[in-house]
Amino acid sequence: MSLQQNLSNFMNTIRLSRNQSITEFAEEIGVSRSEMQHILKGTCNPRIDTLKYIAKNLDVDPATLILPSYTEPQQDFALLLLRTLDAFLELPEDQQENAVYLFHQLILLMKKR
């Protein structure tokens, strides 16, 4: 898969997870709507400084934007995991400790299979 397609897949996943229009997403990222359309279609060859700018605005490592992308089920799982982590971070500290303990117990159960 090409670097352009990897970028397209990553950006589409983020935009869809936020339920944003192309215009809203472009404004948030700080690029023009037309440039965002090219990125989302995989027809854009952004410069390195543009990738760094986008990554900074998304708070991700620039390499993340162009690394090989996930399959659709993997993307769905990754989004679910990210949402779970967001919810975890909103818990009080004592509940976080309990959640970590329960997660550990789940891993141990799965290990026995």
From TrEMBL:
InterPro entries noted in UniProt: Cro/C1-type_HTH, Lambda_DNA-bd_dom_sf
UniProt GO MF annotations: DNA binding
Pfam families documented for this protein: HTH_26
Residue span, HTH cro/C1-type domain: 11-65
Protein name: Helix-turn-helix transcriptional regulator
Species annotation: Lentihominibacter hominis
